[in-house]
Amino acid sequence: MRLEMNPTDQSHPGDLETRDMLLNIGPAHPAMHGIIRIVAKLDGERIQEADVEIGYLHRGFEKMSETVDYNGVIPYTDRLNYVSPLINNMGYCMTVEKLLGISVPERCHYVRVILSEISRITDHLTCVGASAMELGAFTVFLYMIKAREYLWELVEMVTGARMTVSYCRVGGVKADLPEDFAEPCRKAFAETRKVLAEADGLLTRNRIFADRMSGTGVISAEDAISYGITGPFLRATGADYDVRKDCPYAVYDRLPFDVPVGTRGDNMDRYLVRMEEMEQSMRIVERALRDLPRGPVQVHPETGRPMPAAEMVDLAKVGNIVAIADDSAVTCPTLEGSGRARYPSIATDEKRVFLPPKEDTYGNIEGLMQQFKLVMFGHGVRPPRGEVYFPVEGANGELGFYVVSDGTGSAYRVRVRPPCFAIMSALSKILTGDMIADMIPTFGSVNMIGGELDR
Amino acid sequence: MANDTSFLTSRLDEAIGWARKYSIFQYPFVTACCGMEYMATACSHYDVDRFGAGLPRFSPRQADVLFVVGTISHKIAPVLRRIHDQMADPKWVVAFGVCTCTGGFYDNYATVMGIDTILPVDVYIPGCPPRPEMVLDGLMKLQDKIQGKRTTGKRPAPEPRPIIGEP
Amino acid sequence: MNTASLIESVTHRFPDAVSASHTYRGDATVVLRRRFLLEVARFLKEDPALQMNYLMDMTAVDYSTFGKRPAPAFFSSSGVAVSPSPQIPDEDPWPGPPDQSRFAVVYHFYSMAHKHRLRLVVPVEEAVAEVDSLTSLWPGANWLEREVWDMFGIGFRGHPDLKRILMYQGFEGHPLRKDYPVKKRQPLIGPIN
Question: Which residue from B minimizes the CA distance to C188?
Answer without folding.
Answer: B74
